[in-house]
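Deviation from plan, reported transparently: adenosine-5'-triphosphate complex.
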Amino acid sequence: MKSGLNPVGIFGGTFDPIHFGHLRLAQEVAEHCGLEAVHIIPAGKPPHRNEPVCDPALRMEMVRIASTGNPLFFPDDREIAKKTPCYSVETLEELRKEWGNDKPVCLMVGADAFLGLASWHEWRRLFDLAHVLVAQRPGFDIESRMTDPLRSEYRSRLSGDREKLRHLPSGLIMTMEITPLDISSSMIRDCLEKGHSPRYLLPEEVLVYIRKHGLYQEKNGF
Ligand code: ATP
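Because the crystal trials were delayed, the predicted structure below was used instead.
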């Protein structure tokens, strides 16, 4: 039997700002699945949601700061320069060209993001390009919330065998429980807008950067 290749993780998001919920997801999923690295890729212009509050370059810098010192994390700026919406299939195609067709590639998502997968651009093609690893976020029971056609893809692709990730380049869905941390970027933005401290929800160094650049503050000048 072939020894297989180490899978690599791709973790996209708005990261407006990055917080401990994101970082624990990346860390725990990487350890659980034996990923050799996690590329953390902030979206320039996310197609599924409102315009982010912070510019892409600032969100990228916060991802860099939060990743410092973690040998597993690779802040990846390939999406931030794009002026058009960033589709995951296009990013994955680009990565496939760099890494070849045999490399196991794993798209990492929280359960809430996974439930919206069928609305992503050319979503079925994601499975030709990557495995999908779903981290259970607090308050989300994916089985009961899923509707067709996502449910049928889920049922046919679901696997509990982590070894398979090393031997197939793409196509499986795997779910895993991670430490529940009910933190969101919007909660942090709200905190800052109200003049409260989001301390202990995100790395201190990221908060220092936020304060230094006056990000997410009340814009009315009082
Ligand atoms: P916002 O509050 O602005 O909507 P968010 O905190 O949900 O942002 P995103 O950048 O939209 O963060 O999320 C990127 C990815 O991280 C998604 O796959 C999402 O499911 C996951 N994620 C975000 N927060 C958590 C958390 N606390 N626990 C687990 N996964 C999370």
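The chain is about 35% helix and 15% strand. We consider this an acceptable substitute for the interim report.
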